[in-house]
Amino acid sequence: MRRADRLFQIVQLIRGRRLTTAAFLAARLEVSERTVYRDVADLQRQGVPIEGEAGVGYRLGRGFDLPPLMFSQDEAQALVAAARIAQPWLDPALAAAAESALGKMLSVLPGSARAAAEGLALFAPRGRPPAPVLARLQQLREAVHARTRLQIAYRDEAGRDSRRAVRPLGCFFWGEVWTLAAWCEARQDFRMFRVDRIAELSACGDRFPDEPGRTLADLFRRTRAELEASGKTMQSIGLGDYS
Questions:
Q1: CA-to-CA distance for 52 and 65, rounded, in angstroms?
Q2: Are 52 and 58 in contact (CB under 8 A)?
Q3: Alpha-carbon distance 113 to 77, whole Å?
Q4: How far apart are CA 161 and CA 86, in angstroms?
Q5: Interval 132-191: pLDDT, tens
Q6: Which residues contact 207 (CB under 8 A, 6 or more apart)?
Q7: Where would I find the beta strands (DSSP E) of 176-236?
Q8: Closest C-alpha to 81, from 44, 32, 118
Q9: Residue 60 in contact with residue 49, Cβ under 8 Å?
Q10: Is the Cα torsion angle 129, 131, 136, 142 positive or negative in sign?
Q11: Distance (Å, rounded) from C-alpha 132 to C-alpha 153?
Q12: Spatial contact of 182 and 166, defined as CB atoms under 8 Å apart
C-alpha cells in the first residue's frame, strides 16, 4: 500500500470509531505501531485534527469531515451481503431503515459496481424471530437509545417468573437469539435477558444517568477481564474491541 493511501485509510478508520488505538490501526494496515505513530504525527502536522496520544487512542476533532466516499465493487457487495443476512433478524423499523440505506447507496454507484452488488449470489434464507419478539426488540433498542429505565416481566430458563427494574445498555445477537444487556436494580449487577423470554415490558418514566460501574463500557471491561482470566478474548466471542 502506498503511503498516501495508508494515510487516507488511517483517517477513515479513526473517523469510523469512537476511539481507535494504534494497535488496531497497525493490525488493519499490516504495519508496525511505530509506523502508525509516525503517520499520525505527520497527519497532525498537516492540519488533520486527530486528538489523543500513543498508548491511549485517537479520535477526530469535532467539525472535521471528508468528501463522501465512493464504494469499491467489493465494498458494495459486502454491504449488500450484510443487509441480506441482518434484515430478517432486525426489528421492523431498523430493517426498513437498512433497506432504505442500501437503496441510497446502490443509487450512487457506477453502473458496473451496482450491477455486481445487486447480482451478488449470496443469500441467507433462514427463519426469523416471531413478530412479538421483534416488536420487543424495537422497544428495547429505543429504550437503550433514550436511556429509559424499564420494568420487565421475565421467565428464566428454569421457568421462574420475576419482575425487574433494569437499565437497558445494549442488545446483542448470538446467531439464534437476541439478548438485552442491562443493569438489574434488583440484583445490583449486570444481567443478560433473552428477548424471547421477556413477557412484558414498560417504561418506568424516568431516564438513568451514567454511573461508574454501571455502564456498557464497565460491562465490556468486566467481560474482557473474565475472558482473559480464562485464556480467551473479546474477539473469540464475537464482541470485538468495544471496551
A1: 17
A2: yes
A3: 9
A4: 31
A5: 999 999 999 999 999 999 999 999 999 999 999 999 999 999 888 999 999 999 999 999
A6: 146, 147, 148, 149
A7: 178-184, 189-194, 198-207
A8: 118
A9: yes
A10: positive
A11: 14
A12: yes
End-to-end CA distance of the chain: 29
Contacts of 158 (CB under 8 A, 6+ apart): none
Question: What residue has cell string 429509559?
Answer: 148
Residue written as grid cell 420494568: 151
**132 vs 115: CA distance, rounded Å:** 36
> Cβ of 12: how many Cβ atoms within 10 Å?
11
One-letter amino acid at 23 equals A
| Grid coordinates of 177 | 437469539
Residue 182 pLDDT: 97
